[in-house]
Write a structure and sequence with these properties.
This protein has about 475 residues and is of the alpha+beta class. Helix content is about 45%, strand content about 15%. The chain has helices at about 15-25, 75-90, 95-120, 125-145, 145-155, 155-180, 190-200, 225-240, 245-255, 275-285, 325-345, 350-355, 380-385, 425-455; strands spanning about 65, 70-75, 210-220, 265-270, 295, 300-310, 310-320, 370-375, 395-400, 405-415, 455-460. It is globular.
Length: about 475
């Protein structure tokens, strides 16, 4: 079939807005817990023949590939390629190479979606709506108004929202599938050694770093803060029972970063996953029932049971913080100041950390809590100007999580000069890179299995 050349370039302001909208709506299906592989050739006939960048022409629709019961359309590939064109040019990819990679990625994604359907994986409508609304609102802010977005994208708002929900649902299905698949994956000593043997000659030089230790004491929730949070929770519960949207209150009030962008959805969970206070309440709720305020170490929860199956339930929640008073925070600062005085007078910092710190991950490791590259200190840049090796800082605010805050004192333990990668000195970094390597290796092996068990065929190589 003869086809006219197709443009992969955007020029006008409307095209820029359109590209942004397409990027948000179409790339949703790419992201995953582990990430999609690239460069694995699914096309036996060589690279896809691309078209020159230039004039925009009408696209003749056709089915490019079939994966299980799903189809990939020519426009699916071309829209994705158009959106990635500028990035591809910077990377030196031709149109042919770009189309080739895009089609590969779409086939991978559809293999995962077919597998998710086979495994009966589902995601809640509430979670899909919450994330889709967030994405649509983001591109609305970029466009300036609904009419501007509709004009730029060439679709009505109901169509844009419908497409967003479809793509968000697909993204969440793939994420859930991959999270389950890799849940039990562990990186062994053998994996780390194998990775190091294969890649030791290409591992980068390590830049200058600093090693830090700290003693952290958390701010204790006050009775006044507890009463205020519970009163707010009751008000929210009454509003939801009166017909207000649960997800709207999540967006407005919840301080749980892991679920606030998902309508409060915490996903499927068996017994033993949550703290006892949350779990006991969640398992005793009826389907769609909303709890009374529940207090845990994280704050005050409002819980709704939204789905259930054998040995698992799905819940969503609104998490409200319990704040401490200014007087209580000042008392905490005074305590840390006294500990600092003892450390600067010569007492062992590690022993003081073991005795006083409330950071369970560092208190039994002499307070060690971070090794940071000196050019990427961010909020800790002040250390370079304020502390010498062995110095201990005055108390400073420290946020463990949105609901756990307090103060800490920091010791500059040592400065590590730039050096060649060392498997002992840089053990943590080596383990991180070995984990990524193993995930990618297992992901590619999994895709090979899916290709053998799921029907797929390229119908049109876009030439």
């Amino acid at each position: 079939m003869n086809r006219e050349p197709l443009s992969l370039m955007a020029a006008s302001r409307n095209q820029i807005v359109r590209s942004f909208a397409i990027m948000v709506l179409l790339l949703l299906s790419i992201g995953s817990a582990v990430g999609q592989p690239t460069g694995k050739d699914l096309l036996s006939g060589g690279p896809i023949a691309g078209e020159s960048r230039g004039a925009s022409q009408t696209v003749i629709e056709s089915v490019v590939a079939v994966v299980g019961n799903r189809i990939i359309l020519r426009t699916d590939v071309l829209q994705r390629a158009a959106m990635l064109s500028e990035t591809a040019q910077r990377a030196g990819l031709t149109d042919a190479q770009l189309l080739h990679e895009v089609l590969n990625d779409l086939i991978y994604n559809n293999l995962f979606l077919v597998k998710a359907e086979e495994d009966s994986i589902t995601v809640s409508d509430e979670l899909v709506s919450a994330q889709a609304d967030e994405y649509v609102n983001r591109i609305l802010r970029q466009a300036g108004s609904e009419s501007a977005l509709e004009e730029a994208v060439g679709k009505s708002m109901p169509e844009i929202k419908s497409e967003a929900r479809k793509l968000v649902r697909e993204q969440l299905l793939v994420q859930t599938l991959q999270q389950r698949h890799f849940m039990g994956m562990k990186v062994t000593e053998r994996d780390i050694n194998e990775f190091y043997r294969q890649y030791k000659d290409s591992l980068p030089q390590i830049p200058e770093q600093i090693e830090l230790a700290h003693i952290y004491i958390g701010a204790k929730p006050s009775e006044e803060g507890r009463k205020n949070a519970i009163a707010l929770a009751h008000s929210i519960i009454d509003s939801i029972k009166g017909g207000k949207d649960f997800a709207e209150f999540v967006r407005r009030y919840s301080v749980d970063p892991g679920s606030a962008t998902k309508g409060g959805d915490l996903g499927w969970a068996g017994k033993g996953k949550f703290v006892p206070e949350y779990e006991n309440t969640a398992w005793n709720l009826n389907l769609n029932e909303i709890s009374e305020p529940v207090e845990s170490k994280y704050g005050i929860h409002i819980i709704q049971r939204i789905d259930e199956r054998e040995n698992e339930i799905r819940t969503r929640h609104i998490l409200l913080p319990i704040k401490s008073t200014e007087a209580e925070q000042q008392a905490l600062i005074d305590t840390l100041q006294q500990i600092r005085s003892r450390a600067t007078a010569g007492e062992n910092f590690g022993a003081l950390a073991t005795q006083y710190s409330e950071d369970d991950e560092s208190k039994y490791q002499d307070g060690f809590f971070a090794r940071e590259v000196t050019t990427k200190l961010g909020a800790y840049e002040w250390i370079l100007d304020s502390l010498e090796i062995g110095d201990v800082s005055t108390p400073r605010p420290y946020q463990v999580s949105p609901t756990e805050t307090g103060y800490h004192i920091i010791k500059l333990v040592r400065v590590i000069p730039p050096h060649e990668f060392d498997p002992v000195e840089d053990r943590d970094l080596l383990e991180q890179q070995a984990t990524t390597w193993k995930q990618r290796k297992e992901l590619l092996a999994w895709i090979d299995e899916l290709q053998k068990s799921i029907y797929w065929e390229i119908k049109d190589d876009l030439q």
